[in-house]
Specification:
The structure is a single chain. The chain is α+β, with helices and mostly antiparallel strands. Strand 10 (about 255) and strand 11 form a beta hairpin. It starts with a helix and ends with a helix. The chain has helices spanning about 5-10, 15-30, 40-55, 60-65, 85-95, 120-125, 270-275, 330-345, 355-365, and strands at about 115-120, 130-140, 155, 165-170, 175-180, 190, 200-215, 220-225, 240-245, 255, 260-265, 275-280, 285-290, 300, 320-325. The strands form six sheets. The chain has a four-stranded mixed sheet. About 25% of the residues lie in helices and about 25% in strands.
């Protein structure tokens, strides 16, 4: 009786995952395609497959552990018929193996996705906007309807593969199919290519598209436009277009999520006595009541004057911070009144030093 555990190099209590890993490692090592002409490797590969066919099946493994055969007490043991299940095992463990030997199926494949970077203003982000964008992509050639063949001409059957698109050859104990290099797996050869697309069946064009940007997007937002990417292969659908949003910085507002912030100056008089000021918002000017004795840095909130979340009509707030605007120039009367105010408040007034121009006048007037 063959010791299947020893053949795979695992213990008798090995898990299914351990058995599978051992088979994968040994099968790659002794695969006939990797050992052309090596009969010993071919026999070893058959033995490895036989062991795995038994130990990978819980029922067969239980029979083998108890009776020494996968078929139980009435079974006939193993023969070449165990390879009837090998296809499933091979496809599971050697996914992509045939591609390394040039074997590909001409199945419908979705086209590549495209990226477009779009910059918008804060106002456009707040209320949504429609934008017309242009970007290059492949389009089916109208002259030949995507066939790549010159009008009035016809393709010929590939003489290398006979129209199948594959070259088959025997390797070891099974047959391997390889994509035909002469026709690239299409089975036909174009003798007279279309002059517009040079036989490619597609041309590069600048595609124009109008897209809707929803309200509330922010820098980093990504929008998907299905079916606006590159052409698919062998009748497959187009890929998708992804719009990456960048919102420009605003000169007055600073965005924080759905809220916007701004700083607004108020006069010393208004800070002391109170009053109303007009504040710019995304919807136009809005009045804010300034209470008497308002200090610099006080914060006011304009409810619902921020930005919405994408897919919602509810908006954030506008946060307004006021600061006292100190006048840079005072006329004589204003200075006198402030000096009187300072004296009444018990504050000492320091004389303002002369400016550079005043000093020059004093020097040259001597």
């Amino acid at each position: 009786m063959k010791d299947y555990y020893s053949i795979l190099g695992v213990s008798r209590d090995a898990s299914q995952e351990e058995i599978k890993r051992a088979f994968r490692r040994l099968a790659r090592q002794y695969h006939p395609d990797l050992n052309p002409g090596n009969k010993e490797a071919e026999e070893k590969f058959k033995e490895i497959n036989e062991a795995y066919s038994c130990l990978s099946d819980p029922v067969k493994r239980a029979n083998y552990d108890r009776y020494g055969t996968a078929e139980g007490p009435t079974g006939n043991g193993f023969g070449f018929e165990t390879y009837t299940t090998f296809t499933d095992i091979f496809e599971d463990l050697f996914e992509g193996f045939f591609d390394s030997f040039g074997f590909k199926k001409n199945r419908a494949t979705k086209g590549a996705d495209l990226r477009y970077d779009l910059t918008i203003t804060l106002e456009e982000a707040a209320f949504g906007v429609e934008k017309n964008i242009k970007f290059p992509r492949w389009q089916e050639c109208e002259k030949c309807s995507g066939s790549g063949i010159k009008q009035g001409s016809s393709p010929i059957i590939c003489p290398s593969c006979g129209g199948s698109g594959y070259i088959r050859y025997n390797q070891g104990f099974f047959t391997v199919s390889k994509t035909c290099s002469k026709c690239s797996g299409k089975g036909k050869i174009i003798k007279d290519p279309c002059p517009d697309c040079s036989g490619m069946g597609k041309i590069r064009v600048e595609h124009s598209l109008t897209i809707k940007i929803p309200a509330g997007v922010d820098t980093g937002s990504k929008l998907k436009v299905s079916g606006e990417g590159e052409l698919g292969e062998f009748g497959g659908p187009r890929g998708d277009l992804y719009i990456f949003i960048n919102v420009k910085e605003h000169d007055f507002f600073t965005r924080q999520g759905v809220n916007i912030h701004c700083s607004v100056p108020i006069s010393f008089v208004k800070a002391v006595f109170g009053g109303e000021i007009e504040v710019p918002t995304l919807d136009g000017n809005e009045k804010i009541h300034i209470p008497a004795h308002t200090p610099s840095g006080r914060v006011f909130k304009l409810k619902g004057k921020g930005l919405p979340r994408v897919g919602s009509t509810q908006r954030g707030d506008q946060i307004v911070t006021v600061y006292i605007d100190v006048p840079k120039k005072l006329n004589q009367r204003q200075r006198e009144l402030l000096e009187e105010f300072a004296k009444a408040s018990g504050e000492e007034i320091k004389k303002t030093s002369k400016g550079f121009k005043d000093k020059l006048k004093d020097i040259f007037s001597m």
